[in-house]
Amino acid sequence: MATVAQDIQCLHEFFEAQVDLRPGDPAIVCGDDVYSYEEIEHRANQLARHLRDCGAGPGSLVGIYFERSARPIIAVLACLKAGAAYVPLDPEYPTERMRHILDEAEAPVLLTEACLASKAAAAFDGRIISVDADAQEIADQSAE
To answer: For residue 110, how many other CB atoms are within 10 A of its CB?
Structure first.
């Protein structure tokens, strides 16, 4: 069995090393959906590039607001790859709590999905990226 380099310090670097070792192996199984390491890597890279284009990067915080699925895992990796940190928001949070958290974080971007977009818009005045509604714009980014 291959080993991962000892000098890896960040979660996304560890994930990238796993992609190199087992690109086609399942990384996430969510219901009937199965995502390989390579597929997750490509999606996270594309979303990270899109985040950078939208003003997120080193020193910034990005809100992530999703139902349970593979999407928040990809969002976390994308934030880290963009150099940003992430602020997880539970869909059960009341709007005022979300607004307070995002205001305190001074987040330039909130990642979400279409089913939560209206609640996100009620709590956040910044740039909202809906990963499913904006899928083509994200997919236009390089996966490398």
So the answer is: 27
